[in-house]
Amino acid sequence: MCGIVGYIGNKKASDILVSGLKRLEYRGYDSSGIVTINPENNPTLLRSTGKIIELEKLVDQNPTPDQIGIGHTRWATHGAPAERNAHPHRAGDIFLVHNGIIENYKELKSQLSDYEFTSDTDTEVLAALINSFYDPDTTLQSAVTQALNLVHGTYGIAVLSIREPDQIIVARLGSPLLIGVGKDKDNPENIVASDASALLGHTKNAIYLNNGELAIITKTEVKLLDLAAQELTPKVEKITAELAEIQKQGYEHFLLKEIMEQSTTLRSTISGRVDPEKGTMKLGGLNLSDQELRGIKHIVIVGCGTAYYAGMLAAYYIEQVLDDVTTEVVIASEYRYRAFNLPEASVALIVSQSGETADTLACLREIKARGVKTLGIINVVGSTIAREVDGGTYVHAGPEISVASTKAFTSQVATMIMFAGTVAKAKDINPQIIAKFARELSLLPDEIAKTLQTHQPEIQALARHYSKYDHALYLGRDTAYPVALEGALKLKEISYIHAEGYAAGELKHGPFALVDDRFFELFLIIDGWLIDKSLSALQEVKARGGHTVVFTNSTKEIESDHLVRITTQLDLLTPILLNVLQQLFAYYMAVEKGGDVDQPRNLAKSVTVE
Ligand code: M6R
Questions:
Q1: 64 in helix, strand or coil?
Q2: Which residues pair with 190 in a beta bridge?
Q3: Is the peptide bond between 88 and the residue preceding it cis, with omega within 30 degrees of 0?
Q4: How far is the centre of ligand 1, averaged over its atoms, from the C-alpha of 444 (Å)?
């Protein structure tokens, strides 16, 4: 969603702001803007709708050597995507960029009746509020603090003033913000960003703001305060991501790169955690004693979108490894408002790639409030959820830039299996099953690479054929069912083809009525005890004139319009192989349809508002 960049140093600020905003493009946005200032009180405010390239044109037409500035990518919440609603917003001498939502903006606006508003945004209300406290004898820090003490909602903000042109003020409540600390003492600078990717290439040292903190940033110094103006000690942490990881590295789209690199990223996920020789798995960082692990009786898995489907698939596996534990998987946006009770000895797995998803974060807080231990299954290091959980682990999939989540799914499922293995070990149960999962997890990276490589041309050709359809049904049973749900999500979000995932056993209960020439039906069929049931469902669809494609590891004779047959030594983890194939299928379908593959319309990578 929205992104923030700020710069103060000796370099041309507009260059750093624009390149930083480009790094944040993946988060999703519909307008952008920057403002730079200089000691002569001469601000340059440039804003534009559409892609950053439009902003870049304005920057080229209005060059300025200014060395301090703030920038923003906006994903519209209050007010349409229009230039007047784009950030930065000006009020008197101050400029403000803001991520998050000011919930009491209407009430605050009514108290600012003398102010002439020019936008529909909640952000301009905050700018006007800060300005209302910014008397000639008041500091910017004091004005910002007074305003923030009146605000309800969430914010990550960066504020500039032409009266105090040697500082940027940032503050955070709910929306992430970090300060990249310049690495060159002879050439001091500090950079602000809402996401570490905007800092890569500049510095690897960062101060992550906590909720309720404010920082006054000059070229040489970062002063950290709370909202009662008490000084705090900043903690400088290392950013682990590498610049190369957020570049396309020769691929046409980030999505293709992220699909194809899954064997490598999965290796990082399992590295040092799975021992196929000993047949064991162990996750660190859980912050649970052996006694607590042994005591676990119920696991609730929470997530949204792909993270939720990863949880659904993992639940099938967890039930196999921990046969004395009950498991439930819940959608965060629903669960947060339910009057839920969790049984004693529950733990919650909070699954999120970004670690910032608002609904997932709200669930985490609700669950914690009930005294239940929360464990994060998170990709982005230092993210809000990662900071708020009681324990947990990073999935180490590396930066995921494309809005469609792919490699994170694979790593999340693997991590949850390793969690189950860790708990089972503590309970001293099911060593054979743990050993089988350990063996399969260690084989999985190579199996993914082989599957993708072998079937890429075939999948591309299939996409050419099926991209002319308007609708798709994805069907699977057992572990292929959550994979079907995930496949349908992937297809709809990037190709805009309507797609639904269904349990194949549910066809007769409704979806059969849909089978017609505008639909194709994609069956995910896994060899095993339920295969004949899946094959019957396929035949029933064919008998009704359906257009079918099958992804399978079965060697049985299968009658279908198209058939993609993989060969694998895996058994339990075959669904993950079918999933990477359908990721590739969705990718090529999207390419055929000509949409914006990495930044599909109306979507954001990190859904930080409800
Ligand atoms: O960052 P998170 O894993 O919490 O994100 C959850 C969903 O927003 C995300 O998986 C979304 O559904 C993706 N666009 C799916 O590809």
A1: coil
A2: 8, 181
A3: yes
A4: 23
Q: 338: alpha, beta or left, given left = phi > 0 and alpha = psi -120 to 50?
A: beta
Our answer on whether the CB atom of 403 is closer than 6 Å to any ligand 1 atom is yes
Q: What single DSSP character describes residue 553?
A: -
pLDDT in tens, 232-242: 999 999 988 88
Nearest-atom number in ligand 1 for the CA of 603 is 14
Task: Indicate if ligand 1 lies below 6 Å from the C-beta of 131.
Answer: no
Q: Atom of ligand 1 at shortest distance to CA of 607?
A: 8
Give the position, in ligand 1's atom list, of the atom nearest the Cα of 408.
3
Per DSSP, what are the bridge partners of residue 208?
A: 178
Query: Is 48 a pocket residue for ligand 1 (Cβ < 6 Å)?
Result: no
Q: Report the nearest atom of ligand 1 relative to the CA of 406.
A: 16
Nearest to 24, CA basis, from 81, 75, 77 = 75
Which of the two residues, 431 and 174, has the higher pLDDT score? 431
Q: Mutation test of ligand 1: which of 607, 608, 609, 610 has the most ligand atoms closer than 8 Å to its C-beta?
A: 607
Instruction: List pLDDT tens digits, range 330-364.
Output: 999 999 999 999 999 999 999 999 999 999 999 99
| Tokens found for residue 587 | 């990718």
pLDDT in tens, 368-387: 999 999 999 999 988 999 99
Q: What pLDDT score was predicted for residue 127?
A: 98
Closest among 252, 287, 300, 254 to 408, alpha carbons compared: 254
Q: 384 CB under 6 A from ligand 1? A: no
Q: Which of 496, 546, 325, 514 is nearest to 423 (CA)?
A: 325
Q: Which residue has the CA at smallest separation from atom 12 of ligand 1?
A: 305
How many angstroms separate the Cα of 239 from the Cα of each of 27, 180, 181, 427? 19, 9, 11, 36
Q: Could you give the CA distance from residue 36 to residue 130 in angstroms, rounded to a whole number?
A: 19
Q: Is the CB of 304 under 6 A from ligand 1?
A: yes
Q: At what angle do helices 574-593 and 431-466 cross, to 10 degrees?
A: 20
